[in-house]
Backbone:
């Protein structure tokens, strides 16, 4: 179980999270949707213990947490194979088995034997992304934190990798907390959809759902989601529109002229 309990996190320019609660159970794939800058990456960093909350607590009882960041973050002087195999070294797996497991997984992700030997600089962006995903999944994690992992990939590849992630949940019982801006990707993957408001992030919509398979069903489900008023308000409002949480409070007579609101008065 992963639990955010009344979590607050504040930077110099104000709170990113304030009294935030969310739980992720084993075997569920939770997709986080929310406007840019609302705090999605921050939540993943907290779950991975790469950041600490200012208030409240983050409880992560999973034994093996793996993270796929927005950028691949591969070690540039190592081959694709060694980048993936290295993740198993920390788990005490013997060198020959490390390389065999890494090669098998990269092979499933479309790497040829020659590709396995390439350093990241010689891999395409999509191949670097796949290497990072393989590095996360090779340890058979029970919690995978994924931050827009497929953003740079073409549609076919994206579908293969989405299936791989679903497999980790359906076959191995892993939990996944998955950040995306792509609503169709969200409805294709999710067991549960969580939509966040603008910063400081609040849960404005939290529903259990069935991962959708056919393109028609995916588009119907995505349209229905975007038709939900709270979701519309969170995802479709333009920055600076009235009623958004990041709108500064204006007190008549107390506001310096330079801080005059830029949105139209109502
Ligand atoms: N180290 C930091 N110092 C100060 N502010 C930060 C820091 N990290 C993130 N922020 C701010 O916290 C807010 C949330 O950032 P975060 O990266 O979690 O958003 P996000 O929802 O993942 O955005 P996106 O969808 O654009 O990736 C943003 O306003 C960001 O500028």
Residues:
């Amino acid at each position: 179980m992963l639990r955010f309990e009344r979590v607050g996190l504040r930077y110099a320019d104000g709170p990113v999270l304030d009294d935030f609660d969310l739980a992720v159970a084993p075997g569920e794939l939770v997709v986080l949707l929310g406007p840019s800058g609302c705090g999605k990456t921050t939540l993943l960093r907290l779950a991975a213990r790469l950041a600490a909350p200012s208030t409240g607590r983050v409880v992560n009882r999973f034994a093996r947490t793996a993270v796929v960041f927005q950028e691949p973050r591969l070690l540039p002087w190592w081959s694709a194979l060694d980048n993936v195999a290295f993740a198993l070294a920390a788990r005490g797996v013997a060198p020959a088995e490390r390389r065999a497991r890494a090669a098998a997984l990269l092979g499933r992700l479309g790497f040829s034997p020659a590709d396995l030997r390439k350093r990241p600089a010689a891999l395409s962006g999509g191949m670097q992304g796949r290497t990072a995903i393989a590095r996360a999944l090779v340890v058979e994690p029970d919690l995978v934190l994924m931050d827009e992992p497929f953003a740079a990939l073409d549609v076919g590849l994206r579908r293969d990798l989405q299936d791989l992630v679903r497999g980790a949940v359906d076959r191995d019982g892993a939990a996944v907390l998955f950040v995306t801006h792509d609503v169709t990707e969200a409805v294709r993957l999710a067991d549960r959809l969580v939509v966040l408001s603008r910063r400081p992030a609040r849960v404005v919509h939290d529903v259990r759902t069935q991962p959708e398979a056919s393109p028609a069903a995916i588009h119907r489900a995505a349209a229905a989601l975007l038709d939900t008023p709270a979701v519309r308000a969170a995802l479709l409002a333009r920055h600076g529109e009235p009623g958004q949480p990041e709108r500064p409070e204006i007190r008549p007579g107390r506001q310096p002229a330079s801080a005059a609101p830029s949105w139209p008065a109502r």
Notes: Residues 242-266 have pLDDT under 50 and may be disordered. The CA atoms of residues 147 and 179 lie 5 Å apart. Residues 11, 16, 34, 36-42, 199 surround adenosine-5'-triphosphate (CB under 6 Å).
